[in-house]
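Troubleshooting entry. The earlier prediction with flavin-adenine dinucleotide gave an output that would not parse, so I re-checked the input for stray whitespace and re-submitted. Clean input:
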Amino acid sequence: METILLLAHTEADGSLAKSAREALRAARTLNQALAGSSLVVGLVGENVQAVADSIAACPATKYFGVAGKDFAQSRYASDAAAAEAICKSAQATIVVAPATSRWARVLPGVAQRLGGRADTHVTGVADAGGKPAISRWYYRQRMEATLTRAQRPWFILVDPGSQTACECGAGTAKIETVAVNLPDNCKRTTVVGIREPKADAQTIRPDAELLFVTGAGWTKKQADGQTHVPEAEKLIRGFLQLSRASLGSSKSLVDQSGEGQAVLSFLSHLNQIGQTGSTPRHPKGLSTCCHGEEPHTVGWRFINERRAISLDPNCGWARGKADVLYVADAFAVMGKINELLAARK
Ligand SMILES: Cc1cc2nc3c(=O)[nH]c(=O)nc-3n(C[C@H](O)[C@H](O)[C@H](O)COP(=O)(O)OP(=O)(O)OC[C@H]3O[C@@H](n4cnc5c(N)ncnc54)[C@H](O)[C@@H]3O)c2cc1C
């Protein structure tokens, strides 16, 4: 009989992140699929009652909590101690957790302490003939594998964005408090602040409805024989501000900075989509000034609805990579779109 533990931590504002609700969905899927299994919840944070209440209508039979000032912020030693204590109290055989940066660095270590195993980048869970199974991608998202494990406890870190968030409602949860006495040597690290780009400079937005991709065409000579990089920058920035889309790029464009050419100042290699870049998940994607070559479009695997704007009617997007290709000048199209979006606001 499996005891499935959903392990989550609170956010800085005391709430439960969407990724935790997605992991809860995966935990519920396993619980429903495995006859005789039970679902329990474990929470870590400064105060965990509000978060437990927010999901109290889920079919979990027990709630475990490690709470207090020492557990408010991400720190390996205290997070690992909290997770270990909850797993032991719950006698968990399967631990499902969101792959947040906080859990991703701690839970494989906790699996080691408990003699278990951990799998990361999990994108699906299922029943494989009465046994729990997970799926994940290999070789730059080209091959999907389904695997099972006999070792317990089994830690399953679910990739954010891969599941639909669980909508279970609020109520009143009775939390079993798990005491963790942290020795001083587990409190040496202190988070003194968070340095992050300003909201407008933060162009990678995993939760955005739209992935907006820029290609090298934005910096190439246009019909008048000139490049128009400042104008390109203005159009792209304008669109991102109006649409709140996430910004992706082709490799050619992000590489140009290394080659000393005029580039868009807000792009870095973190924006690169493709075989040697990232494979984000967004419901829709719009590519601009990009040729749509295979090493780039392989990064679009999880984008459901794809559109592209390119001057070249024979580009890769026209060869089955996009649902719709607009053979048009992206400068003109994006200028018009920005105008329409601004008018709507
Ligand atoms: C091992 C390997 C790994 C790679 N990994 C990646 C990867 O992870 N990601 C990636 O992106 N690439 C990757 N590449 C490179 C990839 O093959 C392409 O070279 C790259 O994606 C091309 O970028 P691009 O389409 O932006 O540029 P280009 O090929 O230069 O295309 C520019 C496009 O812009 C169009 N254009 C120009 N002006 C306009 C305008 N005004 N309006 C509309 N369209 C316009 C042109 O018609 C052209 O189609 C990899 C290559 C290799 C060999």
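This one parsed fine. The domain at 210-344 is CATH 3.40.50.1220 (Rossmann fold).
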